[in-house]
Amino acid sequence: MGSNYLISPLTLVINTVFDLYILLVLLRFMLQAFRADFYNPVSQFIVKATTPPLRFLRRIIPSVAGQDAAAIVLCLLLIYAKFILLRMLDIPGVPISNVTAPIGGVSYLGLFIFTIADLISLTLTVFLIAIIIQVILSWVNPGQYNPVIGLVHSIAQPALRPFQKLLPSLGGLDLSPLFATLGIMVLKMLVVPPIVYLGSF
């Protein structure tokens, strides 16, 4: 067996563990920023899973404009740590929004720039997935409520609201999810690649 025998499993484990926890921390920030129901069972799980490191960081990182800056800092630290670990495994590059970030051949500053790009990409992806889930649920199970639906609505609505204000009503047909999805996808294509390109130097 070659030297790469354990690299792929380790890479999978690192990506899975880090990405899941980064997602939880980001969801906590978004749910708090959008005033979601924190008594929701899913919200309570997210809060309990992310409280230990955030309790420590909040001692040294104050909130900014009423927002939990410690959660954003924790996301950045976790993404940066993931990139460092992957680089130690000689992984040459990682995909960030369909662009390959060459983590193996850049400075630590470049890694930090990749970290910012990855967090922006993840945030936009969360909005995108929330909108898609909300649309599917509105078709499959309209009028029903459960804890997941409530949280999905809390995340999707801020992205949908600007389009709902701009687009006219077409006989009860809401086109805002279509245009919001398109807008988010275009935004990812316009914003993330230049940041990755900047970090490559």
Helix content: over 70%
The chain-level structural class is mainly alpha
Give me the oligomer status. Answer: single chain
Main β sheet profile: 2 strands, antiparallel
- Order of strands across the biggest sheet? 1-2
User: CA-to-CA gap between the ends?
Assistant: 36 Å
Q: What is the arithmetic mean of pLDDT?
A: 91
DSSP strand count: 2
The helix/strand series, from N terminus to C terminus, equals HHHEEHHH
Q: What is the approximate shape?
A: globular
The helix tally amounts to 6
Rounded to an integer in angstroms, the radius of gyration calculated over CA atoms is: 19 Å
The overall number of domains is 1
- Assess the beta-strand content as a share of residues: under 5%
Low-confidence stretches: none
